[in-house]
Amino acid sequence: MGTSTFALKARLDGLCQRYDTAGALERDPLSLLNGYYEPLDCEVVAFVAAHLAYGRVDPMIRAIRAALAPLGARPAAWLRERSVLAVRKGLTSALASWVWRFHTGADLVAWLLAWKRLDEESGQGLEPHLLPGPDLATDEALSRLVQRLRTELPASYGSRFSLPDPLEGAACKRWRMFLRWMVRTGWPDHGLWTRYPADRLIIPLDTHVARVSRYIGLSHRATPDGKMAQEITESLRRLDPADPLRYDFALSHLGILGDCPGVRKRSTCAECPLYSVCRAGSESTGRISR
Ligand code: SF4
Questions:
Q1: pLDDT at 287 exceeding the cut of 80
Q2: pTM (2 decimals)?
Q3: Residue of the nearest CA to atom 8 in ligand 1?
Q4: Which of 12, 19, 247, 260 to mutate to test the pocket of ligand 1 (most atoms within 8 A of CB)?
Q5: CATH 1.10.1670.10 domain position(s) in the chain
Q6: Which CATH class for the 1-26+199-290 domain?
Q7: How far apart are CA 84 and CA 73, in angstroms?
Q8: In angstroms, what CA-CA distances link 272 with 16, 177, 236?
């Protein structure tokens, strides 16, 4: 590991110290899993929360809470104990006026019925549907599920928004985030899926992670797509081979919490642990503006 790699790792560890906190977690949809104790209940909450995790964080968290409210304290049990007809009827009525940006109540009913159908097939929730095999890579497994859901879910904008395909080059941020929450064992994730290969997780790439990753040289790609997500994950693997995604929460929250102005200046970036390795505002010249 070269000196600059050591420096980058030290800076990113500092970023984790700053953002890996209960306060930052409160403003993350992952916090919505708190209060659920059964793994399958957490899975249903994560399946809903991750796929609605876009837009401004505070109204988004309120919308997800409202979406989950009809399912009560045991969402998986609620879905399992009712017939398809009863689930459809109960949720359609409860979510008639619910909406979160591209998603309507009808999209959410279809999403939860999809979970119920997949769980009835596997008897173990979603994990078996996303497991790779001897002839199936992790992204092929995800693609297979996405393609299936494209045929089963209504062709609404909200449903399509939830179904990007990694084999079509998409970053699949919300699926990657769902997988991180369910598979990774370190804070703040839940590590409830024990058969999925943790070493094949890919970073959930959002605009914040893409931007800051470019500033600090984790990626030089211009488009925040699946290839950039792979490249950033590989760059982070060089810093922490066992757990590259441990930097994801801090990288994204630097942007989510509005702490990164996008131009490196002492006056606005004094508290940023990445200051000495950041090239924001100077990518074209290679110079750091002081
Ligand atoms: S622009 Fe400033 S706040 Fe953003 S990553 Fe660079 S040094 Fe940190």
A1: no
A2: 0.94
A3: 272
A4: 260
A5: 1-26+199-290
A6: mainly alpha
A7: 20
A8: 11, 24, 19
